[in-house]
Design goal:
- The complex is a heterodimer of chains A (223) and B (339).
- Helix content of chain A is 78%, strand content 0%.
- Chain A has one domain: Orthogonal Bundle (MetI-like fold).
- The radius of gyration of chain A is 20 Å and the shape is elongated.
- Chain A is built from 9 helices and no strands.
- In chain B, 36% of the residues lie in helices and 30% in strands.
- In chain B, the strands form 3 sheets. A 6-stranded mixed sheet of chain B has the order 6-7-8-3-9-10, with helices on both faces.
- Chain B starts with a strand and ends with a strand.
- Classes of the chains: A mainly alpha (223), B alpha/beta (339).
- At the A-B interface, helix 6 and helix 7 of A face helix 2, strand 6 and helix 3 of B.
Chain lengths: 223, 339
Amino acid sequence: MNNTLWGMEITAEQLLTGFGDTLYMVALSLLFSVVIGLPLGILLVITRNGHILENKWVFNVLNPVINILRSVPFIILLVALIPFTRFVVGTAIGTNAAIVPLIFYAAPYIARLVENSLLEVDKGIIEAAEAMGATTWQIIFRFLIPEGLSSLVLTFTTATIGLVGASAMAGAVGAGGVGDLALSYGYQRFDTMTMIVTVAALVVIVQLLQSTGNIVSKKIRRR
Amino acid sequence: MIEFQNVKKRYESKKQTVEALKGIDLIVEKGDIFGVVGYSGAGKSTLIRLVNLLERPSEGEILVNGKALTSLKPKDLRAEKKKIGMIFQHFNLLNSKTVFDNVAMPLILSGTPVKEIQTRVNELLEFVGLLGKAKNYPEQLSGGQKQRIGIARALATNPSILLCDEATSALDPQTTSAVLQLLKKVNQEYNITILLITHEMSVIREICNKVAVMEGGRIVEQGPVFDVFAKPQTEIAQNFVRTVIHDEIPKSFKSQAAGNPIIWKINFIGANSGKPLLSTVAKQFDVDLNVLSANISEIQETPFGNLIIEVTGEESEIKKAYDYIQAENILVQEVRIHE
């Protein structure tokens, strides 16, 4: 029982590695999910009826696809995607392998959240942009995104926290992370102390993320 | 400048088709401050949005500076839109940007060099009297100040036309007046043609030179503001005029009047309003005049008065007095409490 901490069955190194793994998984999957989800969310807004790039086809295909992906429970997504993950990453086990289903989980979620944030932007502002003779790109990058940015920051905060939660389940494919420690030591081996410490660690992570998100969002809003 | 040729606009949905504009013919000439007045739902909002194609007409043609915008390619259309400024009821400023950046936006979109933007924005902010607010955010400004910023932004690209969509409807009367004076200054100093829509006849009276009255998707009456105020033809125009010029027989008089007294409504226009009409009539004819209501207002810098008087005396004398007034080229009309 070398290097154990506060009577836990896991070592401080294990805990630190867990932190590292969680951070790695969340950061990487967040990055890819935003890259995919943000444009999809923008498309959902601008292709809807009466908006700047109204397109029934794009909207009516995108909308249900996102709903379907969002309705699959993450643990099932994790397993169902194993062949695809193996094809992309080369293996279906480990931290890198967990990132693929995490992206499938978070990208549609982010698309939906981005949609909600950008729908909040006053239509009058888009109208003013159109009256100024702005191009579609200019409307998106000079009007829609800056006006929705404060709300978008909160959106990404929510998505990040969602990913922290989902990454705990990624232990099912041997991905590691703080959540995995909580499940495999705290829950399955009845190691109460590990359970408490890991859950407390997750609470701290989530709190930090939310507070940072709130502060940044407020700063952008400048109200 | 702006010409509507039998323009129709329909909104079609699965359930029903709503015809918002049922054939609009309208000409706004260079230098005009043209006001369109109507109740909500009359179609005036649709009308103004058709000018810069925020909405597309279902039928008919709209010419702006001689060009039919509907037939332009997207790129050319965007270029034309830069010659048409627009301000809105709710200002539509970017809350995430400073006052300076808001005014600079149209210039940024056109890729204007930074130095030029600096000069132009400062010039515009000075014109609207808000140079000191350059670094503020819209939320720190009052409604009137926000509309001034809206005006500055609309003028940034040196447009030849300014569209005002209920620009003062969200403002209190005093602020409204100040913003209207600023619009007048825009019209006079930059020679910018203004098309505005409003539901307030007082706005029309204060700055417009021409007016169109809309009802149910049609223009029911139009002409120089003075003419419409002096002789409104349609009932709706009369109602609108009555909101700013009170020419009703006072209620208290109506309820107390014995019998059916003879009442004259007299309109003075321009130079006429300076004449001592009543005392002349009272001296020359054997009639008594009792003033029930009188007011003089200015429309287009021309005095416009109306007077309601009760006339008593011999029938023949009354007739002579009536003829005298008419001969003086003054509009007089006999009205009765009971028809």
